[in-house]
Amino acid sequence: GQQLNQSPQSMFIQEGEDVSMNCTSSSIFNTWLWYKQDPGEGPVLLIALYKAGELTSNGRLTAQFGITRKDSFLNISASIPSDVGIYFCAGPRRAAGNKLTFGGGTRVLVKP
Amino acid sequence: GAVVSQHPSWVICKSGTSVKIECRSLDFQATTMFWYRQFPKQSLMLMATSNEGSKATYEQGVEKDKFLINHASLTLSTLTVTSAHPEDSSFYICSANSVNTEAFFGQGTRLTVV
Question: Over the stretch B90-107, which tens digit does the pLDDT of each residue have?
């Protein structure tokens, strides 16, 4: 079930803008994952974070693992049209066979 | 990177028939595979955990006789939707893990029951 609070639920972007979203949890996770899902496709892993305080980049994407291990954020710099999609944070529960707990997703849309 | 292939991408079936969806890990051995269902504009809902050579573990509220899961090898898991009804229409997604990787997802299967 969904136990990660992800915000915002949706956002509009204009090409060139920076985008930021975050995820919080009431419990500690030792790994944070960020996925992107395009319409009609499965999620694709963008960034994996393994250490509290870790800041990791993947091209224009940057994600940080909060020092309390209860939150993470994802930034997209200089957005482009193909950044449109749904972004999910997720935390694997190692003691439960790596079951993923998902955030509700952030839907990134293009401003008309 | 790790590749998970799901087949078919979409399927339309008549009410009362059964549909089988395959999930394959192409370049790694998947100790665990997961099956999800996703409704429009919602997050992924875990249906069951599939471990090679053992019975699947179903989440609460998921009918195991309705959604049959078989994980016969370290690279293949199948989900069979038995006696499908229109309310089973949904987007089904699998994911696979090895001991050394995070979850990689298949492309998803859009099931429409008419």
Answer: 999 999 987 777 899 999
